[in-house]
Amino acid sequence: MKNIALFGSGAGTNAGKIIDYFRGSETVKVDLVVCNKPGAGILSIAEDKGISTLLIEKNRFLQGDAYVPYLREYEIDLIVLAGFLWKLPPLLIQAFPLRIVNIHPALLPRFGGKGMYGYRVHEAVIASGEKETGITIHFVDELYDHGGTIFQAKCPVSPTDNAAMLAEKVQKLEHEHYPVVIERILQMQRRG
Fold first, then answer.
1. Which phi and psi angles does 119 have, rounded to 5°?
2. Is 28 helix (H, G, I), strand (E, B) or coil?
3. Any alpha helices (H) in 1-154, and if so which ranges?
4. Hey, is 153 helix, strand or coil?
5. Which residues make Cβ contacts (< 8 Å) with residue 69, sequence separation at least 6?
6. Which is the catalytic residue, given 104, 146, 175, 177?
């Protein structure tokens, strides 16, 4: 059994899709939801689905043990970022090399980096006159939106799209592809 920890800061729509995708799996279990924001929707989703939660404190996460001992207690095989807005500390990245993945709502390396999340990304894509956008699933390293690309999917940007419309298109791609790609990563871990 491979154990996943989902990290999120917001509503948790991607987390909910991932949890539903793996419900009943005999090989993968979403074992823990980690959140940095009291009252975030991702915590309610986890509670409703009977998944353990951990509300983290900024100083311990960024300058302490990064909750690595806690994650090891859960025997976490893969950390999946699903709308988690804090930069991960080097200690966590070193403890889980090539076992932390993120999804970004654009085609990296464009429209990534510090401060590029949510509607900011979609507004930047529209402002630049791009004809397509999409998602990038990538490994996490010490830089924002920088680790090796695992998967990308594209969708068109229409001249009439606003940030909300583009967000909806991109979110459909996220929900369709993120759980499947996570499953593939775990299968590769099993073989490798």
1. -65, -25
2. strand
3. 13-22, 41-48, 58-63, 68-73, 90-95, 119-127
4. strand
5. none
6. 104
Helix or strand (DSSP H, E) at 132: strand 132-139
The dihedral through the CA atoms of 49, 150, 123, 79 has a sign that is positive
Q: How confident is the model at residue 191 (pLDDT cuts 50, 70, 90)?
A: confident
The CATH number of residue 78's host domain is 3.40.50.170
Please give the structure tokens belonging to residue 12. Answer: 């948790």
Q: Does the global pTM surpass 0.85?
A: yes
Render pLDDT for 66-118 as a digit per residue (tens, 0 to 9): 999 999 999 999 999 999 999 999 999 999 999 999 999 999 999 999 999 99
**Rounded alpha-carbon distances, angstroms, from residue 49 to 1, 18, 20, 33:** 19, 12, 9, 11
The 10s digit of each residue's pLDDT in 124-134 is 999 999 999 99
142 CA to centre of own chain: 15
Cα–Cα nearest to 182, from 41, 28, 52, 75: 28
For CA atoms 106, 110, 111, 112, the dihedral sign is: positive
Specify the amino acid at residue 160. Answer: T
Domain housing 108: 2-191
* Domains held by the chain: number: 1
Active site residue 146: no
The pairing of beta strand 149-156 with beta strand 132-139: antiparallel
